[in-house]
């Protein structure tokens, strides 16, 4: 099934045309068969009417016109050429014997139609019999080899023949034969040619109209995707296509400009907040040095440091979607290894296990921040951290495992929301502002990846960052 709008519409149109043409072909074939049957009945009726009488040429022509005209009116269309004229005289006889051979089946539909046609012309007959047999199995025709000359180039013995018999008043039978014409073959070719012409004309026009609609829609879709990943600047798309599509593009351009302006205002506001808050905090940090009580001074300094770290986390979370530094190809394993070495140098129980060289477009500074947050959480709540760098299909997977208490399954989703903390073992007294996981998730999504948390069956928590390679 095509995934594009153009492909799906064209496929539906193709299936609809094929279904319509198939139905049309069946109806045309049935109509041709009905016309053929009407012509056969008219021919048999004319031959039986002529067999018992010898009218002059004018009467014979008038009778033939009446019979065939009646068949044409009842079966839709002129079919005078369906039964060739030369097939009208391949065998007529008067016989006292029953005209049906042993084992032959009577054709009831022809018998009823033939009886009605003769009756409407005022020709009285007894029983009517119609059967189909091969010319080579008909004794009357087999005894007349000159009949083969009428069908030169054909296998005369295998030619189907309709045999009709009408019982006369004295009990004898008038028997006529006509060579049954082959089923019409031109219908299939006509339908195929008609279908081809319709496809070419209709598909060409519809493709032109749909491309006029889908081309600007594709540009709009591409621009929406670009703006979602890089909302730092607005790009106005040219309005094209039908009026509805032009209005949609205009609305998107206005929305994109407004969103970009709001993001710019947010950055200005955050810069002002950072400056206006950090400056007095720094001054306050200097002033507390004059506090004589050392314990009180240490508590005040710790509170200021907590406020500063929380403020940094908030500012980083706000800026993560507007990173100014471009992505660069980076060896992910080397980046993670350098982080692990930093913790090892500080004597922290961090271990780098399986890792392999994986190059991916990254913002190294931001990704380091995300991995550092996850390792810090593992050390804080689990005591140890084990780091793996692996590849899963087209994704690079950075996993951090700890041996801590884990997180209740009902709270895992909430833990990645801003300022959300779990049970008592993960409160502010143990460190953390509730923004570390939120920031790590935002950084992973900034790289087109994701962050997931899961409790391990053997205990502890497993955090995974997945990034496209």
Automatic annotation (TrEMBL):
Q: Which Pfam families match?
A: HATPase_c
Please give an example of a GO cellular component term from this record.
plasma membrane
> Membrane topology type, per the record?
Multi-pass membrane protein
In short, the EC number is 2.7.13.3
Query: Which segments constitute the HAMP domain?
Result: 211-264
Residue spans crossing the bilayer: 191-210
The record's listing under InterPro entries reads: 2C_sensor_his_kinase, HAMP_dom, HATPase_C_sf, HATPase_dom, His_kinase_dom, HisK_dim/P_dom, HisK_dim/P_sf, Sig_transdc_His_kin-like_C
Which reaction(s) does its UniProt entry say it catalyses?
ATP + protein L-histidine = ADP + protein N-phospho-L-histidine
Location(s) in or outside the cell = Cell membrane
Tell me one GO molecular function of this protein: phosphorelay sensor kinase activity
Q: Which UniProt keywords apply?
A: ATP-binding, Cell membrane, Kinase, Membrane, Nucleotide-binding, Phosphoprotein, Transferase, Transmembrane, Transmembrane helix
**What region holds the Histidine kinase domain?**
272-469
SUPFAM superfamilies per record:
ATPase domain of HSP90 chaperone/DNA topoisomerase II/histidine kinase (SSF55874), Homodimeric domain of signal transducing histidine kinase (SSF47384)
Q: Which SMART domains does the protein's record reference?
A: HAMP, HATPase_c, HisKA
Note the PROSITE patterns from the entry. HAMP, HIS_KIN
What's this protein's name?
A: histidine kinase
Q: Which organism is it from?
A: Altererythrobacter xiamenensis
């Amino acid at each position: 099934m095509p995934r594009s709008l153009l492909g799906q519409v064209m496929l539906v149109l193709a299936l609809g045309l094929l279904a319509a043409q198939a139905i049309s072909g069946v109806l045309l074939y049935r109509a041709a068969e009905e016309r053929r049957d009407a012509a056969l009945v008219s021919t048999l009726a004319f031959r039986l009417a002529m067999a018992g009488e010898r009218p002059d040429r004018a009467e014979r022509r008038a009778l033939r016109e009446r019979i065939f005209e009646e068949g044409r009116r009842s079966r839709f269309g002129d079919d005078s050429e369906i039964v060739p004229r030369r097939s009208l005289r391949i065998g007529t006889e008067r016989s006292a014997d029953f005209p049906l051979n042993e084992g032959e089946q009577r054709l009831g539909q022809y018998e009823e139609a033939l009886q009605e046609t003769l009756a409407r012309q005022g020709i009285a007959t007894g029983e009517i019999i119609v059967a189909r047999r091969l010319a080579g199995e008909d004794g009357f025709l087999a005894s007349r080899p000159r009949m083969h000359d009428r069908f030169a180039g054909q296998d005369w013995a295998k030619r189907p023949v309709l045999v009709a018999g009408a019982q006369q008043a004295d009990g004898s039978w008038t028997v006529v034969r006509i060579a049954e014409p082959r089923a019409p073959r031109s219908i299939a070719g006509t339908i195929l040619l008609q279908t081809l012409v319709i496809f070419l004309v209709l598909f060409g026009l519809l493709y032109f109209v749909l491309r006029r609609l889908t081309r600007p829609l594709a540009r709009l879709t591409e621009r929406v995707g670009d703006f979602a990943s890089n909302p730092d600047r607005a790009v106005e798309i040219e309005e094209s296509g039908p009026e509805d599509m032009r209005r949609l593009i205009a609305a998107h351009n206005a929305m994109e400009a407004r969103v970009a302006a709001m993001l710019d205002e947010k950055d200005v506001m955050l810069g002002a907040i950072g400056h206006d808050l950090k400056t007095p905090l720094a001054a306050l940090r200097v002033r507390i040095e004059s506090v004589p009580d050392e314990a009180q001074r240490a508590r005040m300094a710790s509170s200021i440091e907590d406020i500063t770290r929380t403020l940094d986390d908030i500012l980083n979370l706000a800026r993560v979607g507007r990173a100014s530094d471009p992505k660069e190809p980076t060896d992910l394993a080397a980046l993670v290894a350098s982080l692990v070495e930093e913790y090892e140098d500080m004597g922290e129980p961090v271990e780098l296990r399986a890792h392999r060289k994986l190059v991916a477009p990254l913002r190294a500074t931001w990704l380091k921040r995300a991995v550092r947050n996850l390792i810090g959480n593992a050390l804080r709540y689990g005591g140890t951290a084990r780091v793996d760098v692996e590849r899963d299909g087209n994704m690079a997977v950075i996993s951090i495992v700890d041996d801590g208490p884990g997180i209740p399954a009902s709270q895992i989703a909430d833990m990645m929301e801003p300022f959300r903390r779990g049970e008592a073992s993960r409160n502010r007294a143990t460190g953390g502002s509730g923004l570390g996981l939120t920031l790590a998730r935002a950084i992973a999504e900034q790289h087109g990846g994701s962050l997931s948390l899961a409790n391990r069956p053997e205990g502890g928590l497993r955090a995974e960052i997945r990034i496209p390679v």
